UniProtKB/TrEMBL annotation:
It comes from Protea cynaroides. It is found in: Membrane. PANTHER family: OLIGOPEPTIDE TRANSPORTER-RELATED. The keyword Membrane applies. Belongs to the major facilitator superfamily. Proton-dependent oligopeptide transporter (POT/PTR) (TC 2.A.17) family. This is Uncharacterized protein. The lineage of its organism: Eukaryota, Viridiplantae, Streptophyta, Embryophyta, Tracheophyta. GO terms for molecular function: transmembrane transporter activity. Pfam families: PTR2. Keywords: Membrane, Transmembrane, Transmembrane helix. The keyword Cell inner membrane does not apply. The chain crosses the membrane at residues 66-85, 92-115, 135-154, 184-202, 208-227, 339-362, 374-396, 416-436, 456-476, 497-520, 540-565. InterPro entries: MFS_trans_sf, POT_fam.
Length: 604
């Protein structure tokens, strides 16, 4: 009986037998499906703007918005995917359906490139370029949004299902979990690198039909391999989504909004004492509670008021979580709400990131990209972005952490410090991108703006790709660390999904800015910032605007971080709550790289 695991079940619904289920081999199978997914999505996404402008003849700004909108949606749908997995289907079925859905989306995209009626005629040899019509553009968007739905489901489940294969109470399997995460990071890096190099090369120099068809084939192969191990996986029963708890508190508080909050001692709390969170003034900045914050949090407290309608005939309390919530659940929701300022101040980094797969690719495609007889595809420049992530992550793990531990006794920078460092690198990256674009435009004006390939090396773009990549290595690990360790223990998946939503929101902010800039500056050559042919535009102004807005956002983040740190110092209760996660943080330190690994997978 010792081989049975009570927390997990097998495919028949029985307690999982440790000797027959889970472990490294099933987890490795999940790695395979993930590397196939990374290869396909990055291979398509990093070069999608080239397809939209070169084959469908869409304006650069329109193509950029298509890319950012679909990418942003995939991250926001991770919230929905997590809800479905936690509440109804479980991770295995959610992952299976999501992977199948994404494969269907890629198949539709492949068909759209193979049928001449679904893309406009070529405009080579001096013929007029005809922009894709409504049907052609509609088929593209259907394919991309179907893919986005699948990607959202995968992002919410794949890493969690991988960790489900290990028993954290078993020291041997616990060490295997650390190995799994380190291999996870390595494998998805390989998948990403192959996607932005080999896959994009096939798209640019063979055909998009072959490129997308290979992506569809790879996804199908990964899904078949994933299904082949169904009998050996460990599964966890659905326990409910934290989203439901948040909705319950909001609904219950709304129903009792007219009631006057009584003394704290009379608020309802049926949580066992060991897990109970006592009432706190969680937004206190000084010794005097901010009035607006006080009333906002008093409103949440109303969800724990026992009203006359909450009693049954025998005077026992009706256990209806949509009408009455325990004080502990209310406090957990408050803790999540306290994360919102940091959440809001980190969105803009991902707006910067969105430029690397849109306008920066267009820039690279207009420049000299040859190395001998080999020509680098424009979309493959994201490999330098990935290189920045890998180099900075390795440097941080191997140099910064040991040095700080030796000299200051600290295990590297705090999560808020890492976020700040990432924001600074993104600002520097955009400043350098501005000057690089000015240099490119000067060459275009002197040599001829109609040139397809300008006589200027594409390698002047490397700093912007590399620096933003370095920034992402810091901000991603910092964000994930912050949201996981500062959220209630029962809402870890919810806090991770909240973090992922910053990425999706950043992509949508990019689309919003592009739309506003187009409306303000117009589309006429000479005055417009974003034109169909970037040689006639003023993209450097757009990059400069992003650098300025990013600087403002950095100041906003610093203020939010100072506020957050002060509330943590002033509120003893919150410090006690956070201290309950000390053992988890120690374990996270022992397997340094775990958060970066999961973050890398989630980002892509």
């Amino acid at each position: 009986m010792k081989s049975k695991i009570t927390y997990a079940i097998d495919y028949k619904g029985q307690p999982a037998d440790k000797t027959k289920t889970g472990g490294w081999l099933p987890a490795a199978t999940i790695l395979i499906v993930e590397v196939c997914e990374r290869f396909a999505t990055l291979g398509i996404g990093a070069n999608l703007v080239t397809y939209a402008t070169g084959i469908l003849h869409l304006p650069n700004a329109t193509a950029a918005n298509i890319v950012t909108n679909t990418s942003g949606l995939s991250f926001l749908l991770a919230l929905f995917g997590g809800f479905i997995a936690d509440t109804f289907l479980g991770r295995y079925w959610t992952l299976s359906i999501a992977a199948l859905t994404e494969t269907l989306g890629v198949a539709i995209l492949t068909i759209s490139t193979a049928m001449p009626s679904l893309y406009p005629p070529s405009c080579k040899n001096g013929s007029t370029c005809i922009e894709a019509n409504g049907l052609q553009l509609g088929v593209l968007q259907v394919a991309l949004y179907v893919m986005a739905v699948g990607m959202g489901g995968l992002k919410s489940c794949v890493s969690g299902f991988g960790t489900d294969q290990f028993d954290e109470n078993d020291e041997k399997e616990k060490s295997y979990m650390a190995y799994f995460f380190s291999r996870f990071y390595f494998v998805i890096s390989i998948g990403t690198f192959l996607g932005v190099t080999v896959e994009i090369y096939i798209q640019d120099y063979v055909s998009f039909t072959w490129g997308y068809g290979i992506c569809c084939l790879v996804l199908s192969l990964g899904l078949i391999i994933f299904w082949s191990r169904t009998r050996t996986y460990r599964y966890k029963k659905c326990t409910g989504s934290p989203l439901v708890q948040i909705l319950q508190v909001l609904v219950a508080a709304s129903k009792k909004r007219k009631l006057i909050t009584p003394s704290i001692d009379t608020l309802y709390d049926d949580t066992i004492e060991a897990a109970r969170i006592h009432h706190t003034d969680q937004l206190r900045i000084t010794q005097n509670t901010d009035i607006l914050c006080y009333f906002a949090y008093s409103w949440f407290d109303k969800a724990a008021i026992i009203d006359k309608d909450d009693y049954e005939i025998n005077d026992s309390v009706i256990r209806n979580s949509w009408k009455l919530c325990s004080l502990t659940k209310v406090e957990e929701v408050k803790m999540v709400v306290r994360l919102i300022p940091i959440w809001a101040s980190t969105i803009f980094f991902w707006t910067i990131h969105a430029q690397l797969i849109t306008f920066s690719v267009v820039q690279a495609s207009s420049m000299e990209r040859s190395i001998g007889a080999f020509q680098i595809p424009g979309g493959s420049f994201n490999a330098f972005f990935i290189f920045g992530i890998l180099v900075s992550s390795s440097f941080y793990d191997r140099v910064i952490i040991p040095s700080m531990k030796r000299w200051k006794g600290k295990h590297g920078f705090t999560h808020l410090q890492r976020i700040a460092i990432g924001l600074v690198f993104s600002i520097v990256g955009m400043v350098i991108a501005t000057f690089a674009e000015i240099k490119r435009i000067d060459v275009a004006k002197s040599k001829g703006e109609n040139l397809t390939t300008l006589p200027i090396s594409c390698f002047i773009l490397l700093p912007q790709f590399f620096l933003v990549g370095v920034g992402e290595a810091f901000i991603y690990s910092g964000q994930l660390d912050f949201f996981i360790t500062r959220a209630p223990k029962g809402m870890k998946s919810m806090s991770t999904a909240l973090f992922l939503s910053t990425i999706g929101s950043g992509f949508f902010v990019s689309s919003f800015l592009v739309t506003i800039v187009k409306q303000v500056t117009g589309t006429q050559n000479g005055t417009a910032w974003l034109t169909r042919n970037i040689n006639y535009g003023k993209l450097y102004y757009f990059y400069a605007l992003l650098a300025i807005l990013s600087t403002i956002n950095f100041i906003f983040f610093v203020l939010c971080a100072i506020w957050y740190v002060k509330t943590m110092k002033n509120d003893v209760q919150i410090e006690n709550i956070v201290s309950s996660f000390e053992e988890e943080e120690k374990y996270a330190i022992e397997i340094e790289g775990t958060r970066t690994a999961t973050a890398k997978e989630d980002r892509e």
